[in-house]
Request: fold
Amino acid sequence: MSYPRLIIDLEKIYQNALTLQNLCGKNNIELVGVTKLVLGDPKIAWVLKKAGIKILGDSRLSNIKRMVQNNIPGPFQLLRIPMLSEIEEVVNYVDEILVSEEETVLKVEEVAKKYDKNIQIIYMIDVGDLREGIWYEEAPEKILNLSKRLSTVTIRGIGTNLGCFGGVLPTKENMNILVKIKKYLEKKLGKKLIVSGGNTVALKLVESGELPSEINQFRIGEALLLGTDATGHREISYLSQDTVILEAEIIEIDYKPSIPVGKIGRDSMGRIPHFEDKGWRKRLILAMGEQDIDPTGLKPFDKELEILHASSDHTIVDITNSSQQYKLGDIVKFRMSYGCALRAFTSPYIEKIYK
Ligand SMILES: *Cc1c(COP(=O)(O)O)cnc(C)c1O
Reply:
């Protein structure tokens, strides 16, 4: 047994997947299970499939390849608009691609023809968050013009991404921009289109009944895997947050002053540290650091713990207020924010254990 480690509760992830699959099903929304947080982990991908999720989505082609090579059945959706340099491989591994650049789509068309593969695209439209997508005012004409140049590639629908760069929340208003564009394009193209309306944060609109009925695909990762919504800043009440638990080992426990002694420069990450004088404090050091976790995203089970700081390999925790008796070699448990979990899953120093 080695630490730090993640305890991944496959049953709880399965339950979250079932719950979300039901919620989306009832609202005629196709759920894309997003696996990027777990690097396309095949065991977790299987669980999502078993819960009835039809499409798996990932932002990284290497994660999709990992799933394919582990016999996870598709279809697969590529979430990050592709690099020109990866399109050969994308066409071979991926069924549905989110796109925003005409040049990229034409390259996909060319390669798809070569391999005789039908590729679906979802054209991303920026309704205000300022990440990927063509600006909504220009979208209808641009997509229409492009559609005339495609024969192998199918425009399956349009989509948007919110809550990522600008932190813009999904609302009835910005969703209705998409609906308007969809209706216009459907009329001009003479076919039905899907509207891929968002990620975890958009679940709120389903819960409140405000989601326009035309929005019929959600790409969801965080809610499935962690039961939380970082952009909406909440724990989702009907999902489990104990899907993934981080365990780390104590390598020092001691009393120290709360203010460093000596002239202060910057910390190991180049940050200017701030200290509050609380006198001498009881603290412990955990054998994990910035290379494995984001200290600001650690949520200790022991609510009396205060995370003070992490450098690359050490995390320092104030335990003065805790009623628990910690000793050297003990294990401390945490839930994690999305950003922290992302780093933990990516760290090769963190063992992954499945329950
Ligand atoms: C990561 C990602 C998602 C999933 O977001 P969650 O907040 O984890 O649900 C959806 N769409 C795109 C384009 C993404 O990059």
User: Anything to note?
Assistant: The two ends are 14 Å apart (CA to CA). The chain has a mean pLDDT of 95. The pocket of pyridoxal-5'-phosphate is lined by residues 34, 36, 59, 79, 98, 161, 199-200, 219-223 (CB under 6 Å).
